[in-house]
Design goal:
Radius of gyration: 24 Å
Number of strands: 0
Number of helices: 20
Structural class: mainly alpha
Distance between the termini: 47 Å
Helix content: over 70%
Order of helices and strands: HHHHHHHHHHHHHHHHHHHH
Length: 490
Amino acid sequence: MSQGGAAARDAAKPQDRGWAWMVLLAAVLLQGLTLGFPSCIGVFFTDLQREFQASNSETSWFPSIMVAVLHGGGPLCSILVKRFGCRFAVMLGGLLSGVGMVSSSFCKSISQLYLTAGLITGLGSCFSFQAGVTALGYYFVRWQTLANAMASTGVSLGFTLWPLLSQYLLDEMGWRNTFLIFGGILLNSCVCGAIMRPIQLASRSPLQSPKHAEEPGRRAEEAQLSNGASSPHPELQQQTRRTACFQMLQKYLAFDIFCQNKGYQIYTIGVTWMMMGFALPHVYLVPYAIQNGVEERKAALLISVIGFINIFIRPFTGLLSGHRVFTGRRIYLFSLAVLLCGLSNFICVISAEFSVLIIYCVILSIAMSGIGALTFQVLMDVVEMDRFSSALGLFTILESITLLIGPPLTGLLVDLTSDFHYVFYNSSFFLISAALFMGLSFCALEKKNKVKEASKAPLDNPSRSQYSEMPTEPQPGSQSPPAVVYITSI
């Protein structure tokens, strides 16, 4: 064997073995600390309303901002990871999350809470989570699917434990001291980031030092500008900057795919519309139960039931969707899960008894497991993999907008009507309409593609994505190292 081959084997040694499993454990904790954390905000909803004399709409802006920034900060996190590496981004995120929650314990108004716990903690959680997922992609190659599935159990664990801990601390210490303790707990993301030490990959620089892989031409241009040299053609320089800006937008926000790929267009619009109603039960379920006479401890237990069932159902849903029977049909399975999620909300309208709400949480958790397991798998089905990162950027930013405005608008409706039933009516409307739109649109698109294919000669190498008009398979021999991908989980 050549020395180059031996060096490559040594370079890839940390992958799929040894320290990689410690990184996986850190990723599980990170997902519980970041994506699982917003699940407990509903526990504090009534106390924050009472403390700041705020309406339902004003109070709901707090969790909405946190979740929207957590989902929509992907492109910024991607730039940060590319510039400084995964370990730095995770630890910076942990620091921001901790500082945000500690600062929120001293807030004097609900608007200050938007900035501290909403924006700062949300941005920190975004950095920690998405950089942690990216680092996991470097540490696992052969067992990457298994590693991602195991890491996602951290979200379900967070959903289960955060509400219970929140209610206990709230009863014992009040919300201000609870937020102070939460700040200390979230600082553990820095410890998880410290575990994700740099590794040397074969035939490339360490994953934590991506700066050195920049294009020589760009570095030469930056060196020229840093030496104070002015461009002899200002118009040309301005045009070059415009082109660079456009290329960056195209890299992180795939507007061209949105215009050309009908499957991606339908799916992005459908999921964006769905998110208007998807988060509403998580924000308003606990206040709704308390208003209808359910004890506060039992009300907090409802969110934990959703998370506990998610632990077992989500992996099963992922395995089921991976069966070859559903190949090319995952969008219909996803639409069915969204439809079930929307229909389940009518259970809350029928009765607000604790036993009925438990049944609602069980059905909602099953539907949520399908949505969470299939969201990004369907996106991979409709978009070619070499553009997946940029397609995901536009996808997450659009869904974060509706995640931001959905709960406050519904809160305004509750304030005007004094009826919490409108929360579940609204949620059902958006979820059911989105499910029907996606299912029927993809059915029509599939029929259109079949008619088009029937009128043409069969291709030797058909595209893997049946909804995309662009090739999805990368060219042979051009396998690239793991890309910096920003991912969110529902």
